[in-house]
Write a structure and sequence with these properties.
The complex is a heterodimer of chains A (about 300) and B (about 150).
Chain A: H1 2-27, H2 44-53, H3 55-58, H4 73-87, H5 98-113, H6 120-125, H7 133-144, E1 186-193, E2 198-204, H8 206-213, E3 225-235, E4 241-254, E5 265-271, E6 276-278, H9 281-291
Antiparallel strand pairs in A: 1-2, 2-3, 3-4, 4-5, 5-6
Helix pairs in contact in A: 5-7
Chain B: H1 2-20, E1 39-46, E2 51-57, H2 59-62, E3 73-83, E4 90-103, E5 114-119, H3 130-138
Antiparallel strand pairs in B: 1-2, 2-3, 3-4, 4-5
The chains are: A alpha+beta (about 300), B alpha+beta (about 150).
Chain lengths: ~300, ~150
């Protein structure tokens, strides 16, 4: 008799919990749906892929499954969506400059291609978010229509303004100081971007260079530093591309503990010949977020591979 | 008891698997060129031939009046460009193709600069005119670095 009463109580409690959970699942407002100020304009096939795989988090339109509204889950979903919207919002596409729009599309492709996006935890329970190899190919072909050609013309040789480093070397908000000694480091690689019109030379300090040689780059050892120098590309009269206007020097400094919140790397950028320091600590989160696409090489993109 | 043993074995197997798991690091291209203390002067890209070259020089080559300094020495290192594996939208230096060396020492005796070329991974390469290549290498403008001379 006692057992029977207990069973009744347990059954009733479970029933109530089920009803409450179901009610919450259908009524919980996880996130707001602000108005769409300007949507992505792209061919239908491309738009469909982004709409399905990215819009649920990266737009103002809310696409939630019933289980996204469950107690405990809803708060995690809300956090993910708000973070995603802040980084890239297809519903507020008009707020980006044309250059920023293109940069966002290249980044989105690379994040999807590397498997970082859609978030694996999200894709595991939202099977419709997965992007197939054929769809990646569609995105690639679309991006190739946006490939940037160099039209800037190289001026005839003129005396260059001599560089003059400030006596007090600038320091980025991340605490990283400009390091002129990178000029003594070995070249790691050189890249020519066609998603924009820049060219770069990457230097690795002795610790980083040794790590590459020893294949100990996932994770990189503390003390490894990569410096990247960026110029605008210009074309000379023979069609050869050369470095034009200097844009910036960027550093990635490895310290797993100090920079734990940005994947173990500290980020710094010094722009224009005046070496104006950036990024802010918040922007460094964006740097780290993007560099997750290079997870296989410990967060470093510009390593040449044996293809 | 059997359940505990099974659990223990499973946990042990999982721990061993976790410890021995190797991270999948892509095959990084070994560095085929050693700069031997030379500094980068500039980088040039030949889109037609799908090549990128880095011009290195010694201190004299980076200094004023380098073109008439017999101490100046240059190396133009040319690679095939390849698509970056980790960022679609970027080309990166790939296979090493040539190292062209220009040594200005002979100019001290009124002779032409010494030019030589080492060819790698390139079956069919027609050596270019030494004087023309020397002229090309010597007259490339320096890329602007905010910390030069360093």
């Amino acid at each position: 008799m006692k057992i029977s009463n207990r069973l009744k109580i347990i059954s009733a409690s479970a029933g109530i919990a089920l009803v409450v959970t179901a009610a919450l699942s259908f009524t919980t407002r996880v996130v707001d749906a602000p108005p769409v100020t300007g949507d992505l304009q792209a061919p239908a096939a491309v738009k469909e892929i982004f709409s399905r795989a990215c819009y649920p988090c990266h737009s103002n339109t809310v696409h939630l499954k019933w289980f996204d509204r469950l107690p405990g889950v809803a708060s995690l979903v809300r956090k993910d969506i708000l973070t995603a919207r802040k980084h890239l919002n297809f519903s507020e596409w008009d707020k980006l400059t044309p250059a920023a729009q293109d940069a966002a599309l290249w980044e989105a492709y690379n994040m999807i291609n590397s498997g970082v996006m859609p978030l694996p935890s999200y894709a595991a329970v939202h099977s419709d978010a997965k992007v197939s190899a054929a769809e990646l190919s569609t995105l690639r072909n679309y991006l190739l229509t946006k490939k940037k050609n160099v039209t800037a013309v190289k001026q005839d040789s003129v005396a260059q303004t001599a560089a003059a480093l400030p006596k007090a070397l600038p320091t980025a908000p991340t605490g990283i100081q400009f390091m002129p000694e990178f000029r003594q480091w070995q070249v790691m690689s050189t890249t020519s971007r066609f998603d924009n019109t820049t060219m770069r030379v990457m230097y690795a300090n002795p610790i980083a260079m040794q790590a590459i040689r020893n294949k100990q780059i996932n994770p990189w050892p503390d003390g490894a530093i990569i410096a990247k120098v960026v110029w605008e590309k210009v074309r000379d009269k023979d069609g050869i591309i050369q470095p034009g206007k200097f844009l910036n020097v960027q550093y990635m400094v490895r310290n797993a503990e100090r920079y734990e919140t940005t994947g173990g790397w500290g980020y710094a950028k010094f722009e224009t010949p005046a070496l104006k320091p950036s990024p802010t600590l918040l922007e460094a989160q964006s740097c780290a977020s993007c560099h997750r696409a290079a997870a296989k090489t410990g967060g470093i993109f510009d390593l040449s591979t044996l293809n | 008891m059997r359940v505990i043993n099974l659990f223990t074995v499973a946990a042990l197997a999982f721990t061993i698997a976790s410890c021995t798991e190797k991270k999948d690091i892509p095959a990084i291209r070994p560095f085929a060129f050693n700069d031997s203390g030379l500094h980068v002067i500039t980088t040039v890209i030949n889109e037609k031939d799908n090549e990128v070259s880095m011009l290195y020089g010694n201190k004299a080559a980076l200094g004023q009046n380098a073109a008439s300094n017999p101490e100046a020495a240059y190396k133009l290192v040319t690679y095939r460009e390849q698509e970056s594996k980790f960022w679609f939208g970027s080309y990166i230096n790939g296979e090493l193709l040539r190292v062209e060396t220009v040594n200005m020492q002979p100019t001290a005796k009124g002779q032409a600069p010494a030019y030589s070329v080492d060819v790698y991974n390139q079956a069919a390469y027609t050596p270019a005119d030494a004087a023309a290549r020397t002229q090309f290498i010597q007259t490339l403008d320096r890329a602007w670095y905010p910390c030069d001379p360093y």
